Amino acid sequence: MKVSVNFKTDKLPVAYRLGMLSIIKECLKNGAPEIYELYFTSHIPKPYTFSVYLQNYKFQETDISLTGFQLNITSPDYQFMIPFLNGLQKINRFQYKHYHFQRELIRFAGDQEIRSNRILVQTLSPILVEDEQHKPLSPHDPAYNQQFQIITERISQSLRGKALRSPVTIRPVSVKKTVIKEQNDSYLRAREEKRVSGDYLFFTAYSGRFILEGDPVDLQWLVDSGCGLRSGQGFGHIQLESEVNP
């Protein structure tokens, strides 16, 4: 299920993904508190991803001035999406720190059915792949494809309770490096405890077009739930551009 929600606001923090996550959490709390507890009181992978389209924006030092934004969220898990939508429809105004968001139009997008074992995808939010030492990998690194496979297999076991039907490979077509300035709860705690000194975390991810190859069922799952690391924090949102003939 794919949903797009428009919000009106004049300001967002530069590290805005945590603000988007606060919207998702508040919707779940209002829609089904037990589902919120299931997904957000543990470190299990989240069954969704999201991307954000900023409207008429201008970056400043710590904030983004804009006229609004569109939150795009996708998940194949109705146990997550139905409570999220129920909560979303109950709330018109959201607050994150000193930022205020007015909810406007909610739209549903059609699902993209995949029948081929090879697809061309476009990122809506950048894909993050890191090695075991948390070092970011470039899609042109020989280890990238193997690490993507390891990550995908691990998340499949956690979210679906089963292995991939066959290995999923990823190949860059036209990509660019995207350095994301972000914060999260664990980093903010570490900063309060003076274990880190910087204001932000930096993630090196990649946007653009990729070829994914694997079983159509697995490819469908990746398009519907996101791929790579930190999909629940707004990375790895992809959309089907076309199926590719062998």
Automatic annotation (TrEMBL):
GO biological process assignments: defense response to virus
Any Pfam family the entry gives: Cas_Cas6_C
CDD domains xrefs: Cas6_I-like
Cross-referenced InterPro entries: Cas_Cas6_C, CRISPR-assoc_prot_Cas6, CRISPR-assoc_prot_Cas6_N_sf
Keywords: Antiviral defense
CRISPR associated protein Cas6 C-terminal domain residues: 112-239
Gene3D superfamilies assigned: 3.30.70.1890, 3.30.70.1900
Originating species: Sporotomaculum syntrophicum
Protein name, as recorded: CRISPR associated protein Cas6
PANTHER family per record: CRISPR-ASSOCIATED ENDORIBONUCLEASE CAS6, CRISPR-ASSOCIATED ENDORIBONUCLEASE CAS6 1
GO molecular function, one term: hydrolase activity, acting on ester bonds
